[in-house]
Amino acid sequence: MSTAATNNTYWEQVRHGDKQALFALYNNTYPHLLRFGLKLCGNDELVKDCITQLFLQLWGRWQQLKPVTNIQAYLFTALKRHLIDQLAYQARTHTAVSNWSENEENELSYEEIIIRVQQDEEVRARLHRAMQSLTPRQTELIRLKFFEGLTYEQIADRTSQTVKTAYNTIYDAVKTLRRLLK
Predict the structure, then answer these.
(1) Which Pfam families does the record associate with it (predicted)?
(2) How many CB atoms sit inside 10 A of residue 83's CB?
């Protein structure tokens, strides 16, 4: 069976809620998506994160997925859009932070500063409460991925588990956090 036919089979299985097919599709297309993403953007960590987010989004809406004839082209297009969105977001964030830091003394009143600090504390408190509902293993892997910025491969090496297990654990933890933080 050709790679395209295999990917089509996996896609159909994902559309029917098969999580293992999602991982198989991920494993089958990851090297191609990585090469494609690196051609668009030289930031390998951003590309890897976008690929992971792409598959998390696919799984998050598996019930709404439509039949696709060329899975690889579909995934390339989705990755490209996701990368463009992330790069635009980073550019906006960088500009906003630069503008804010340059003008913060002139533009922010004392009351505005207090409100921002309180909002930040509320978000931190909500995140802390949500993190407490995770298992110790999920908490550890979330810390490694998002606070220390390790790749899935580095996390697997550090925790003596497979990349797939690290991915699964982080996926489940992120899903739980999203549900709790809504």
Answers:
(1) Sigma70_r2, Sigma70_r4_2
(2) 21
How do residues 3-54 score in pLDDT, each as one tens digit? Answer: 778 888 898 998 999 999 999 999 999 999 988 888 888 788 889 999 999 9
Token duo for residue 179: 């549900």
Residue 44: CB partners within 8 Å, gap ≥ 6? 34, 38
Instruction: Sketch out the chain's domains with CATH numbers.
Output: 1-107 (1.10.1740.10), 109-182 (1.10.10.10)
* pTM recorded for the entire structure: 0.52
- What pLDDT is stored for residue 135 in this prediction? 92
Q: 51-57: which pairs have CB atoms within 8 A and are 24 or more residues apart?
A: 51/79, 52/152, 52/167, 53/82, 54/78, 54/79, 54/82, 55/22, 55/25, 55/26, 56/171, 56/174
CA proximity to 72, closest of 154, 2, 163: 2
CB 15 within 8 A of CB 62: yes
Q: Residue 50 in contact with residue 96, Cβ under 8 Å? A: no
How far apart, in Å, do the first and last CA atoms of the chain sit?
43
d(CA 155, CA 88): 28
Length reported for the chain: 182
